[in-house]
What we know:
Shape: globular
Number of domains: 3
CATH topology of the largest domain: Nucleotidyltransferase, domain 5
Helix content: 40-55%
Order of helices and strands: HHHEEEEEHEEEEHEHEEEHHHHEHEH
Strand content: 15-25%
Number of helices: 12
Strand order of the largest sheet: 5-4-3-6-10
Distance between the termini: 16 Å
Largest sheet: 5 strands, mixed
Amino acid sequence: MASSEIARDINRSNVLDTVRTNQPLSRADLARQTGLQRSTVSLIVDELISERWVAEGDLGQLPRGRRPRLLYLNTDRAGIIGINIMPRLTTIALADLNARFQAQESIPTPRDPSTFLDVMSSYVRRLIRQHPNMAFEGIGVSVPGRVDFLAQRLVFAANLGWHQVDLKEPLESATGIPVQIENAANACALAEVWSGPNEGISDLIAVTVSDGIGTGIVANGHLVRGPSGAAGEFGHVCLDPQGPECKCGARGCWEVYASNAAAIRNYARQNADRSRKPEEKATAEPVTSFTDILSLAERGDRRAGEVLDEMARYLGLGIAMLVNGLAPSVIVVVGEVTRAWKRVGPLIEGVVRECARTHAGTRIVPTDDATQPRLRGTIALVLQKHFRPRLFA
């Protein structure tokens, strides 16, 4: 049975989230939309106003009777700092309670975790000094690796080469702000159900495609972590035991075939093979990033197109595995590959139709990479604790 404290916290989160998603609105609107009694809503709203989560604004319009005072989130109350760590670049951003970015900066990611913590602590402290009148609700950090959620510790990030790194305590000590650490794919899944076209969906998988592949799973309204926080590592499911070696130490993992890094290796191998043939010419331009492959494909480079096609087929194989095993309503693909969705999307869907025979009706959709889903996820990571704690169960 739920205690009165749990019921109160659920009602409070319900009211706060309803204000966020429907602002501005009146107390009467809140009562209708939450199903709570008006007296309960008034008590919760008064508490939220006293804590500066909610503010009163203009008077609303009614055909007759007393005009109600409209409520909205108090974006001046606090800020949230988000840090998205990736192998090449780390982005730090400041957002308000509506998850709108107010400031943002990217820096090269130091390879040594100790150096990274020193540099990042310096940047966060500078950001705090630049906003002296703002209180900070928390720092959300997304990492491309396994996280022990209970201990809030990075266990292993293959593409960073980091093992057993404590990011939480040093950042908290340096800034005085609570820190929350999460796997990048989980953060993306939170971002998807927090806002945008997939808001409120109770079963969704976010597939992040970068130097590796990650999967964040929301099932029955809960983020799936497992007892150690390592659930969802489908990027390291073996497709071929005799395949190429993965940075995790195994062979033939999904990500060695379908990631950005795999595409770069594939293009370099094809270029080297064809340069040995008199009738073929190697690409004169150096290809050092996945963006280079996308640009070449857009300009009609046949080899770049073939590499994207192969990447799409392997993405389809892995996604079919997710559909067969979990049958979610939506699978969201996150990453630069979505810029070529007109090309890769139909190939992915074709492989899924061929290999997934569950009739699940799962929609496979891209997320616009320009919306920075990983970074939005770091903000949602902090805000969800207040607005939707069920996702943290």
